Automatic annotation (TrEMBL):
Residues 1-18 form the signal peptide. It comes from Biomphalaria pfeifferi. Keywords: Coiled coil, Lectin, Signal. GO terms for molecular function: carbohydrate binding. Residues 161-219 form a coiled coil. This is Bg selectin 1.
Length: 219
C-alpha cells in the first residue's frame, strides 16, 4: 500500500512540477518602498523561452496594476507588441521610465521605473504574455507580484536628513579643496608665464646686443 502510494505521489509530482516552471516572471526592485524617501521602484516582466515553453511566439506583453491586493481591479499601464516594438501606455513619462523588447529568438521583457513613487504605486502588478503555441493556437500566460508602501517615521526622516547633510558637507569640502587646488595651479601657471616672459625678454636683449656688435664689426 505504501509503495503504491509513493508511486502515485511520484506520478503526481512529475505532472505538477513543470506547471510551476516560471516562463513569465514579474520582478520588483525593491518590493517595499518608503514614500518620499525611496528614489525609484522598478517593475519588470520577463519572458524566457526554453524547450518546455508552450508559448513559442510572443505577440504582446502587458503590465497592469491594481491598488488593492484583495479582489484586485487591474488597470493597464504599458504594453508592447511584436508588430512595431514600441511601448505604449497611459503613464506619465516625465516621472516614469518605460522600456521593452519582444525577441522571439531570445528573451522578451517589459518594464517601468517609478521615480520617487507615491503610496498609490503600491499594490499588485500583473504581467501577461500572449501569443501562439506550436499548433498556432492562442496562448496567454500571466504572473504577478506585490509591492508594499511604507510611510516614513520621524526617526527615519531625521536619519535621512542627517545623512544628506553629511553628504552635502562632504561635497562642500571637496569643492573647496578643488577650488583651492585650481587657484594654486592657476598661480603656478601665472608664475611660469612670467618666468617665460622674462626669459623671452632677456633673449631679446641678448639678440639686440649681438646685432649691435655685428653692426660695429661691419663698420
Amino acid at each position: 500500500m505504501a509503495a503504491h502510494l509513493c508511486t502515485i505521489i511520484s506520478m503526481f509530482s512529475a505532472v505538477v512540477v513543470p506547471m510551476f516552471k516560471a516562463e513569465l516572471t514579474v520582478n520588483a526592485t525593491p518590493t517595499t518602498f518608503t514614500v518620499g524617501l525611496t528614489k525609484n521602484v522598478k517593475i519588470e516582466c520577463l519572458f524566457s523561452r526554453d524547450q518546455s515553453t508552450n508559448l513559442v511566439f510572443v505577440t504582446s506583453l502587458n503590465l497592469a496594476h491594481s491598488k488593492t491586493t484583495d479582489n484586485p481591479e487591474f488597470q493597464d499601464l504599458i504594453s508592447i507588441t511584436s508588430f512595431d516594438s514600441q511601448v505604449y501606455g497611459s503613464v506619465n513619462t516625465s516621472r516614469t521610465q518605460v522600456y521593452g523588447v519582444i525577441d522571439n529568438k531570445g528573451k522578451s521583457f517589459l518594464g517601468l521605473v517609478w521615480d520617487f513613487p507615491t503610496v498609490d504605486r503600491a499594490g499588485v502588478y500583473k504581467c501577461e504574455a500572449t501569443g501562439l503555441n506550436k499548433m498556432g493556437k492562442h496562448v496567454a500566460l500571466s504572473n504577478s507580484t506585490i509591492i508594499t508602501a511604507l510611510k516614513p517615521e520621524n526617526d527615519h526622516v531625521i536619519e535621512m536628513v542627517q545623512n544628506l547633510m553629511t553628504q552635502v558637507e562632504h561635497l562642500r569640502t571637496q569643492i573647496n579643496l578643488t577650488t583651492k587646488n585650481h587657484a594654486e595651479l592657476a598661480n603656478k601657471i601665472n608664475q611660469s608665464s612670467n618666468y617665460t616672459a622674462n626669459l623671452q625678454s632677456q633673449l631679446n636683449e641678448a639678440n639686440a646686443k649681438n646685432l649691435n656688435l655685428e653692426d660695429k664689426k661691419n663698420q
